[in-house]
Amino acid sequence: DMVTALADMEGLVSTELQLVKHLENYIQEEESRLKRLKGFLEEYESIYQEASADPTTYLANPLNAYLLVKRLTSDWKKVKSVISRNVGSDFVKNITQHKNDMRLPTDEDLNGAAVALTRLQDTYQLDTHALAEGKVLGKKNSRQLTADDCWELGRQSYNNGDHYHTVLWMSEALSKLENESNKTVSRQDILGYLAFSTYKQGNVKEALHLTRELLKIVPYHHQALGNIRHYERLLREQETTRKQTAAIDDVTTGERFNATNLKLEKTLKTFGVPNDLWDNYEKLCRGEKLLDPNIEGRLRCRYVTNNVPFFFIQPVKLEEAFLKPLLVIYHDVIFDEEIETVKKLAHPRLKRTTVQNMETGESIPVKYRISKAAFLRDDEHHLVSKVSRRVGYITGLDMTTAEDLQVCNYGIGGHYVPHFDYAKKGEVHGPRDLEWGNRIATWLFYMSDVEAGGATVFPSLGVAIWPRKGSAAFWYNLYPNGEGNENTRHAACPVLTGSKWVSNKWIHERNQELRRPCALNYNSEM
Ligand SMILES: O=C(O)CCC(=O)C(=O)O
Ligand SMILES: [Fe+2]
Asked: Where do the Fe2OG dioxygenase domain residues begin and end (predicted)?
């Protein structure tokens, strides 16, 4: 599980270097082995020439007779042993032994990386062809993908039952293959996947065409022959229906059965988020403006002192992002030294974010939140407690019932789909909920800039907050009466380029009874 946090992927670069070295050694050894064999060959050849010129005379010499026998027995054994010395499997064994300190990714990691890429493709509407050219958002910052690279993306999608992306990537693989001289994937392999997924996408006519292409290469392809019959029958049935319907219906609607015009259907997984909010989420991630200009016009920036003497000298910069519910951004509230310390403490303990089965206590990795996180206690480092205290000073809330600092690192494509931080009725987010009440507010530190993507967005409000190192977002999750405010639904957009580090304090209801109304008086009506 290495691709869910960028911090953990950095090690893979040195893994690759080690693999390169292993491969170099292996090739060297194979080359010297071949050199020895070539030596034997030359000797055998030259002696043979001498002997074959006149075998009788040659063998009349007792030494020659002896040497011939020797060459065909003992010498030949040597040759055989050099030939069959298994340098290859030694090499593989060596790598397997190194596997633990080398940390090779697994097939699951490959699937995760492929899914991350297709997620980015959807959220940011990235064109498959441009991606295959190595372009992300118009910038060329990677080498081109080969037909094989595209094929693998298609295959991973296929294995996930995602026929939409299978079609996109297999088509790309097919067109790449035409211009490649050094082919590592075959046209028939691509066509097999492409035809079937095209059928699964509802385009029977195209599936039939592709399967026929496949049969041109492999005429007795068992499965393809079966599929062809099935597709042909389906098309005949469709045609009959079309004729019948056309006879009844207005003939001007002739377009409706044009199978080849069928658009590809995304296998949209919205994790139970209503469709319109999911749309907003993706739009906000892409940087589309959704906030009502009237609301935006009323938002202000100001300095906060909260009657904390320290803040009289250096007030905190506050930027309103929404008023009801109150959602604000504070600037320059965590400093580089603190960020570095927090990252350093958290890094070795980062674990894939999971949900806990409340009955068995088992941790289950989830698809809706792809990142790695660790919790830091205040007593672990004076800078951790300092940062927690600062949150208390700025918000005016009591931090003794807050959760430990959660530090989170996202990998490429890492995300957290729209969710609520508070527990719904009957739900418990942690054992402490019962004692400390619900998560009244969320404080989210941004501990890195993110090159592209990775915004925190509120689809019901139309607000996007773009990570800025040193800033923090803060909002109330609950109405003053303790009920959850559904409009605080928020998400972490997939990271497109860069590494995203955040850390957050979840502040609980207990002990805030007297603090909240006077803390920031304008939010009491929230
Ligand atoms: O990373 C983000 O932008 C938001 C994270 C979040 O919502 C959470 O951890 O609950
Ligand atoms: Fe959250």
From this structure: 401-509
- Please tell me if the CB atom of residue 456 comes closer than 6 angstroms to any atom of ligand 1: yes
Query: Minimum-distance ligand to the CA of 420?
Result: 2
Number of other residues whose CB lies within 10 A of the CB of residue 143: 9
Q: Dihedral of the CA atoms 459, 460, 464, 465 (nearest 10)?
A: -110
Q: Identify whether residues 306 and 256 lie together within a single domain.
A: no
Determine whether 270 is exposed, middle or buried from the number of CB atoms within 10 Å of its CB (0-12, 13-18, 19+).
middle
Q: Mark whether 384 and 473 lie in a shared domain.
A: yes
Look at ligand 1, atom 4, and give the residue with the nearest C-alpha. 492
3-state secondary structure of 142: coil
- Domain range for 150 is 107-261
* Residue 138 within a domain: yes
Which of 76, 102, 128 is the endpoint of a domain?
A: 102
Whether 240 and 253 map to the same domain: the answer is: yes
Residue 270 lies in a domain: no
Q: What values do phi and psi take at 167, rounded to 5?
A: -60, -45
The residue length of the chain stands at 526
Closest residue by Cα to atom 5, ligand 1, is 492
Alpha-carbon gap, residue 129 to 460, rounded angstroms: 33
> How far is it, in rounded angstroms, from Cα 370 to Cα 353?
7
CA pair distance 473, 446, nearest whole angstrom? 8
Q: Are 496 and 119 in contact (CB under 8 A)?
A: no
Q: Let me know: does 453 contact 474? Beta carbons within 8 Å.
A: no
416 pocket-lining for ligand 1 (C-beta < 6 Å): yes
List the structure tokens of 233. Answer: 């029958």
pLDDT along the chain (526 residues), means of 10: 86 89 93 94 90 90 90 93 88 78 85 94 94 89 92 96 96 95 93 96 94 96 95 92 68 36 66 94 97 94 85 89 95 97 97 81 86 96 97 94 96 95 81 82 97 97 98 95 94 95 95 66 41
Residues 290 and 392 in one domain: yes
Nearest listed ligand to the Cα of residue 491? 1
On whether both 373 and 227 belong to a single domain, the answer is no
